[in-house]
Amino acid sequence: MSINYSAVVADLKAQLGQDAVTDDAVRRFAWSTDASYFRIVPEVVVHAETLEQAKQTLAVARQHNAPVTFRAAGTSLSGQAIGEGILLILGHDGFRKIDISEDHQKVSLGVAVIGADANMALKPFNKKIGPDPATLASAMVGGIVSNNASGMCCGTAQNSYQTISSAKLLFADGTELDTGCEQSKAAFAESNKALLAELTELSQLTRNNEVLANRIRKKFSIKNTTGYSINALVDFEDPFDLINHLIVGAEGTLAFVEEVTYNTVDEAKFKASAMAVFYNMVDAARAIPPIKCDSVAAAELLDWASIKSVTGKNGMPEWLSELPEGAAILLIESRANDEATLNQYTQDVIAKLAHIETERPITFSSDPAVYGEYWAMRSGLFPIIGGERPKGTSVIIEDVAFELEHLANAASDLTDLFHKHGYPEGVIYGHALAGNFHFIITPTFGSQADIDRFHGFMQDVAEMVIDKYDGSMKAEHGTGRAVAPFVEMEWGADAYTLMKRIKQIFDPQGLLNPGVILNDDAKVHVKNIKPCPVVDDFVDKCIECGFCEKTCPTSALNFTPRQRIATLREIARLDASGDKQAADEMRAAAKYDVIDTCAACQLCTISCPVDNSMGQLVRKLRTPYITTTEQKVLDFQAKHFGAVNQVISTGFDVLNIIHKVTGDSVTNGLMKVGRMVSKEVPYWNPDFAKGGNLPKPAPASPDKETVVYFPACGGRTFGPTPKDPDNRTLPDVVVTLLERAGYNVVTPENTRHLCCGQMWESKGDFKNADAKREELIDALSKLSENGKVPVVVDALSCTYRALTGNPKVEITDLVEFMHDKLLPKLTLTKKANVALHLGCSARKMKLEPKMQAIADACSGSVKLPEGITCCGYAGEKGLYKPEINASALRNIKKLIPVEIKEGYYANRMCEVGLTQHSGISYRHLAYLLEECSR
Questions:
Q1: What is the DSSP track for 483-540?
Q2: pLDDT per residue over 365-408, tens digit each?
């Protein structure tokens, strides 16, 4: 029976509201991908912030028999976070509870909590959650538990299955259960007797089948996420324990997980690492069984192909080029809570490996700077391979597991398969202690022959892993669609029948993530493969991993870089196929989401493992949209910027006078009329700043050091807002501060006319942008006598853009100058508390520590609102697209304690937006330092 999705959408919107539901074609396509190599376009996308919204979604799904796929961060690699029908995505603010028990032995986490954030909350107690996937900085708890994700250290002892205490669940029929609440369990037992009875019976049958029970125990003695966690059937008898553990690794096919309570694990205080270099893979594999003991927390194996791929790259040891062909490396880490035990552990490891010849002596280091280079090899593998792959190719990471005695032979067999099927670039690395290999290949999927080749490769891998070594086709990445065709092959008919019964017990309608884990289609793993067409050098390396989404200021508004790139790739594919009409239609429909609302802050580049720059691409894409008239306006502004800047500043003063006389409604009405005439007229808000001014330094004194000070556009255009506690402009405060510290201050004579060019670049006008930057650099070079006099700029983003122009003189941001030069010269009186923003420009320039140090020197308590990275003001874009700023800062007011009345940053435009949405005054750190040094 076909599903009437128009009715589904209408019912969802009626229940959840318009904002939570979309069937827009562009937005559906944008959410059709996760970190896997699949693409499936949903019919409708729901963003759920509450359990009630999830319940309403499931109710509509039941009514229309529509499938539902649950999605957390979408960092999964096997295609389990995408699906047809309804795609329910965890919202941007809900499901984020973090509740630590008084004894710190348990932590309750909403499923949208990012794993690293959970660990940050537990850090003061030397605790953490057990699972440690490589995606911990981006992956959400919902995905971590649903995939039974693990990593380098947790192995099979501290994964979600072993450390889960309880869970709050919502089943397909709308029933709720909290497995940690006796009252909830009693109610569930009354209303779901049949379900509990069936689970109990299934467990008994499994335990009574000795052959099957022993096979299950053997299969789960190594890492295994192929199929359901049927080890629960032999490990537990209580039906609620069964539910608790069957949900782990179920990939959203059995229930919606609302909250998980973990038993926490200890975080060791002391660490040391060694790089053991062996002459061959056989010796490296022989070294693993002896060190599978308490002395070793992690051991990562790198094969010869992995070593070659990182040799000669930035940050890698130079001696890698001297290693003999066929060498292998074992990165070993020991951890302890005291130095004596750590030393004992490291000596134990060295002794246990003494019988194996190594290319160089094994030595441990507890210096983070030293062992950081070791682990940079391991963490650098993926971005290096992903970043250097040919254009148009995909990146596929698979993970398999073997018993330790088979590792060397399995590695050799896997390498042979790389070459047999035309993937010579394939590399092998992995979590050696767990017998877990990851391998990376970069296939092309441009033709059916390419897909057939990949199918043949995966078939051979399955036969090698399963038939030859009885290993795991999926060790920690989840089954998804990628190995669904091999579940029965790996487990056998009896175990597969158990899994199908489990699915039927929990989801008799088959609504929840159908086709994932259990799938009768033997070729589902080579269907719905996403193409990777060439778009632009700025983003062609993108692997759609989703690491960018945590920091993107427009993630809650519409898109993140991952969705923008996915959309651009489809437009490129349509263009390449000759369907120009479809490409043009999609390009026009996507313009607002992809181009107009990207803040171009480039935080995505910082978090991107392959250094994509969506921000730079968006600026480039804006160029063709500049009309002839608009270009003339931009040219005029650049040529006469001094006059333009003065008029704008004066205009803000006039606007504030009008507002005082007429009030909000009249002023807002005037601005609306102005926007009808020109889109350069900004939106009004009551916190609009007054105009700024140029500084007036005191006459120079011959016995003082001189500094060249350039007041950037923001500070000299935007003065104080109504919430600011004084009427001084930033240039006035900076001059006061510099002169107090004993400096002569000089500024360019034509300051009003000078600009770094950011306002033109953000619109895609690179010609004027670069010309203005060169003009500024030339002026500063002359004034500083070619660098003899230090040059200071008072806005982070302007400093950053000036520095990217390779200036002939050293240009220092005011933040750095205050930290390095002014702090030692000033006597400070601390304030009680302040808020501090560490925005995108600060992060790009790596100035967060210095900003924090200034704030700490001036205040007894400094609050950094959690999760606020980029404010979304994006230069002057906040004036014309205020929804970006509003979305990025939607939570800031509730994150700042009521006793804090002032906040600080180092970019005037950003501070204007921060002031508006926080409800407190945000100003440059110079104000704080000036006040505290009086």
A1: SGGGHHHHH-HHHHHHHHHHHHHH-TT--BSTTSS--S-TTGGGSSBPP-----TTTT
A2: 999 988 888 888 888 788 888 888 999 999 999 999 999 999 99
